[in-house]
Sequence to fold (176 residues):
Amino acid sequence: MRLSTACVAALSASVASATGWFGSSQEVIVDDAQKVPGDSPLEFCDTDHSNDIVKIESVDLLPNPPESGAELVIRATGTVFEPIKKDAYVNLVVKYGLIRLISTKADLCEQIENVDLECPIEKGVLSITKSVEIPKEVPPGTYNVYAEVINHDEKPITCLQATVKFGGSKESVSEL
Fold:
């Protein structure tokens, strides 16, 4: 089934790759002005998105927030305005509090294989649905995910970020 967009690629990299760190008893912390439409902790990075190759229309996580030891279903829809080709990449950073767990430049075309897509991704409206298992063993704390997705010609595809708090009290970071 041919699905989603580079949004999926970003999801594949930011959500699926980081899901190994997500667990139960968490709180999603999102600024509504930058929030990605849908039911997820994702928000757009604080950059100009007028030239993005992908317009993300919605991203839903079931359940939201993710739960440890449970299946997470990711549903995403978006529009691709230019083909996404080989040599596109994701700059991915995952932090646990202030500790950087992952900082890598990943091949986008390899990452999207995780959501049953392959490069090139052609122009058009695409959707994906993907299930992943969340491990039970996840340390409580605040996790920050940042994924900047860039096409082969260095044009921005999209940029997403999320903050999720696992365990502990239900106060948001802004209240601390």
In short: Helices lie at 6-16, 108-111. The radius of gyration is 15 Å. Residues 1-30, 168-176 have pLDDT under 50 and may be disordered.
